[in-house]
Specification:
Elements lengths: L1 H29 L20 E5 L5 H13 L6 E9 L8 H24 L3 E9 L2 H15 L3 E10 L6 H4 L3 H11 L4 E8 L7
Parallel strand pairs: 1-2, 1-4, 2-3, 4-5
Helix pairs in contact: 1-2, 4-6
Length: about 200
């Protein structure tokens, strides 16, 4: 039994390492993607226009991939983007006011990078965030407030999709995007989960 548990631990570790490598490649490809500068639109997002609300977690290739997917799937549909994130206070960060302040600063800085990226593409962009101890509930609350502010908003999330879907992937990888989607749809908000494909070798755990 001990040998089986050790072997299982090594297989899980190898799986996570390969996924991290895929994500590093995605970051290397998309975070430094060349963008032809467009005329940037200033001012606030008009209340009566369509808004793509991007639910992101940190500035990464996953978030950029989601933005580009929306532009590819719905060309000329959106001229306004709103980036939303919840900084989660957990046992690693809740060690004092300084750590919480650093989390808030990092959350805002990450969102500002998205705003700058979309601005270079010639779209209006803004951000919303909160700092809380639980992600899903606070994301839903933020989204409900955003829908009141922008009635024509639709919410987008990215989710890793594996080439060979195995039942235990739901244990190894969280289903936060789908949980948020279900909560938003139950609240009457339109939420779309966009797949981010992860290719696997035949020896992946």
């Amino acid at each position: 039994m001990t040998s089986l548990l050790v072997a299982l631990a090594f297989l899980v570790r190898r799986h996570y390492e390969r996924v991290r490598e895929q994500l590093r490649r995605l970051d290397d490809t998309l975070l430094n993607i060349p963008v032809r500068p467009h005329e940037q639109k200033g001012g606030e997002i008009p209340r009566d226009e369509a808004v793509a609300v991007m639910l992101v977690n940190g500035f990464s290739g996953l978030g950029i991939h989601t933005v580009l997917s929306v532009q590819t799937l719905f060309p000329h549909q959106y001229r306004n983007y709103l980036f939303v994130s919840v900084g989660v206070v957990d046992s690693a960060t809740f060690k004092g006011a300084a750590e919480v302040g650093a989390l808030k600063k990092q959350t805002v800085e990450d969102l500002e990078k998205y705003v700058a990226f979309v601005g270079r593409l010639g779209f209006r962009a803004d951000l919303r965030y909160s700092i809380a101890t639980e992600a899903v509930e606070n994301v839903v609350t933020l989204c409900e407030e955003i829908r009141k502010e922008f009635p024509r908003s639709i919410f987008y999330l990215g989710q890793l999709i594996f080439q060979n879907d195995r039942f235990y992937y739901r244990i190894l990888h969280n289903e936060t995007a789908f949980a948020i989607q279900r909560r938003l749809q139950f609240a009457g908000l339109q939420a779309v989960v966009l797949p981010i494909r992860v290719l696997e070798s035949r020896w992946t755990a």
